[in-house]
Amino acid sequence: MRPDTPAENVDHNAEAARLERTADRYPEDAEALLVQAAAHLELAGDRPAASSLYDRLLAAQDGLENPFLVRALKAANLWEYGHEAEARAIIEGVRAASPRDPAPWVIVAEALESHDELEQAQETFTEGARVLLTDVTEPPYSTHLLLFGRHRVRRMLGLAHDEWDTLADTLHTSPVSLDELHDPKRVWSLGSDNPAELEAEISRLRAELGTFREALSRPFPVAVLHWPASELSELLAAYPSLESEYPSHEEHLATIEESLRELSSSGTPNLGIVSGTVPSYEAFAASEGMSPAEVSLLPQYATTLAARGRAGEWPPQRGTACWCGSGRVYGECHGE
């Protein structure tokens, strides 16, 4: 489906079927493709079929990169077609597991919020923030929605601002403040006969639309390509001309960290790392009609891997393993 295809012109069932066929051809990308397929089935109103896809993924849980994300999506979907008890049980399981990825936290909290469980939603957003942001000086881009959702629910509950609410205000770049966007009284202005109130609400809606467009304009991270040691050796043996790009594996790793820090300091959000393999790189080169020895092909390969959902977040969450594969904690390895 083209990204500029109007939603009303999308055949969601056909798109889901296409994604399932693609997943069968490219099993290494099946997780991301089937999650998208399930989303189309939900939009088509076929929630049982979407649940079946989530179950299909969870049946192969050992091979999943984001099992808690799939569980969270399944719970949200189940609740929408009457399986509240099962959904709640899955949500509690996700919360108890304390995943290091913000997406499952956001999904289960928003599921609670959409069913008017505001206290539980606030607690879930807060648990996620505590797990992911305690002692973190600069919240990763992927955690912004966690903070924004927490701010929204707390505003609806009439709770006073705390440090994380203030941080959410700081991270929010829209010209309309979060306090105004999350004002529970906004709904009343939609039925107002006062032109000033209606004009103010139109401005707020435009600001929200701008925020959504900004998020959609970068649906996957700006990713830097990482070659594990064995893959880099194989790559250079097959294509010696790339030695100018990769003088040594140690220098390659140092360059990755340096490049990401430079991008971060320049204000680029949503950064990530993708790991390449020689077979997939050669297949990509063939699909582009280019030689794998072409240096210009490397960033295109990285972008394609990121678009397929293969990117790991940079910097890694506190206490997690370094991206280089050393097995050491990031803060004691390349994060020093």
Question: What secondary-structure arrangement, pairings included, does this model have?
Answer:
Elements (H helix, E strand, L loop, with lengths): L11 H14 L4 H14 L3 H13 L7 H14 L3 H14 L4 H13 L3 H16 L10 H14 L5 H9 L6 H4 L4 H4 L5 H23 L4 E5 L2 H10 L10 H17 L5 E5 L2 H11 L8 H11 L4 E3 L22
Parallel strand pairs: 1-2
Antiparallel strand pairs: 2-3
Helix pairs in contact: 1-2, 2-3, 3-4, 4-5, 4-6, 6-7, 6-8, 7-8, 8-9
What does this structure look like?
With 336 residues, the chain is mainly alpha-helical. It is 60% helix and 4% strand. It has helices at residues 12-25, 30-43, 47-59, 67-80, 84-97, 102-114, 118-133, 144-157, 163-171, 178-181, 186-189, 195-217, 229-238, 249-265, 278-288, 297-307; strands at residues 222-226, 271-275, 312-314. It has a 3-stranded mixed β-sheet with strand order 1-2-3, sandwiched between helices. Helix 4 (67-80) packs parallel to helix 6 (102-114). The protein starts with 11 loop residues before the first helix and ends in a 22-residue tail after the last strand. The relative contact order is 0.06. Residues 1-6 have low confidence and may be disordered.
Outline of the structure:
By secondary structure, this protein is mostly helical. It has helices at 12-25, 30-43, 47-59, 67-80, 84-97, 102-114, 118-133, 144-157, 163-171, 178-181, 186-189, 195-217, 229-238, 249-265, 278-288, 297-307, and strands spanning 222-226, 271-275, 312-314.
